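Action item from last meeting closed. Structure (346 res):
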């Protein structure tokens, strides 16, 4: 149907585009491809794969534009129209001029099918092209929530529930038998006589000083002496107190305030994503990381950054190595934030 309406004239019923026209379009498209393939790297600094994709798209568009001009010249000449006037109009206004020529030629020949069907195809191609190219050019239209689920690690599992609290032991009831109870006559004769054992009394909260004299003043006396003469023998001095325990270094510290950042000893630059480079996207990706005791990166998370740049930044930072951080002579973990910058070369 497309060939009947566009590639064949309604008067002659013969193809308008001949082999020479297709050869001209192919030669011009190939020339544009090679010219862009060798000049775009010097102008934009993009990689070979990106340059080849851009050159292919532009060469296909130029080839299609050349075939449109050939069609207008051949069809206008066959129908007796002013071919050079329509050639200039289509050269200056490619899409609008071609649609205008189709409407004009259909009105002159009386066959409106050769205008309505190509115009419908053109609009369908434009709509599909916009739906495909807009997400590539305007990356803000991409679903960020879905991209983040692909780029970030899944959340850790929830912690196990705490164990149930141990039941408090029941208080022991101590029954003390006084002398008055022993002298009192029983009112009822018991069938069995249970033996009652007195429980030892709990130690009293005595207040004193280590090495003090028995019978001294609680808490000591100003100007007094430790020990004393007991039975004519001088009591020995108390042993010295044990040394204070060595303060333990914390397992993890965070950079900031009096804590300096860890020293980077190996930090390869991230590889620029081709899709982000084509869309001219640049910026900063901020990551939250934990530098382990041996200097490797652990528990890497995304704080902020463009979705197309996050994956490359995380892949590069995972390979970074730092000098171990020492606190009181012991290696500790360091929680810090890492910024990775992506900048396009001018």
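Sequence:
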């Amino acid at each position: 149907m497309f060939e009947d309406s566009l590639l064949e004239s309604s008067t002659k019923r013969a193809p308008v585009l001949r082999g020479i026209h297709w050869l001209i379009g192919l030669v011009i498209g190939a020339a544009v491809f090679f010219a862009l393939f060798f000049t775009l790297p010097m102008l934009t600094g993009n990689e070979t794969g990106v340059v080849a994709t851009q050159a292919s798209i532009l060469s296909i568009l130029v080839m299609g534009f050349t075939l449109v001009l050939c069609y207008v010249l051949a069809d206008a000449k066959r129908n007796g129209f002013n071919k050079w006037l329509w050639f200039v109009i289509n050269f200056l206004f490619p899409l609008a001029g071609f649609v205008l020529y189709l409407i004009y030629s259909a009105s002159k020949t009386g066959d409106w099918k050769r205008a309505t069907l190509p115009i419908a195809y053109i609009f369908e191609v434009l709509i599909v092209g916009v739906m495909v190219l807009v997400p590539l050019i305007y990356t803000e239209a991409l679903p960020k929530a879905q991209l983040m689920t692909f780029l970030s690690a899944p959340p850790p599992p929830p912690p196990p529930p705490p164990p149930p609290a141990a039941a408090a032991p029941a208080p022991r009831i101590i029954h003390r038998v006084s002398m008055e109870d022993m002298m009192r006559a029983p009112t009822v004769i018991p069938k069995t006589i249970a033996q009652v054992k007195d429980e030892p009394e709990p130690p009293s909260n005595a207040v004193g000083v280590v090495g003090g004299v028995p019978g001294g003043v609680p808490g000591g006396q100003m100007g007094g002496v430790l020990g004393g003469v007991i039975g004519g023998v001088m009591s020995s001095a108390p042993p010295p107190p044990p040394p204070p325990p060595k303060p333990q270094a914390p397992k993890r510290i965070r950079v900031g305030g009096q804590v300096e950042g860890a020293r980077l000893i190996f930090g390869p630059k991230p590889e620029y994503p081709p899709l982000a480079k084509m869309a001219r996207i640049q910026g900063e990706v901020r990551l939250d990381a934990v530098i382990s005791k041996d200097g490797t990166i652990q528990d890497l998370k995304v704080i902020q950054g463009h979705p197309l740049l996050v994956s490359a930044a995380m892949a590069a930072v995972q390979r970074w190595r730092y000098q171990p951080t020492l606190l009181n002579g012991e290696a500790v973990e360091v929680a810090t934030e890492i910024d990775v910058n992506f900048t396009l070369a001018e």
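Note appended to the action item: The two ends are 48 Å apart (CA to CA).
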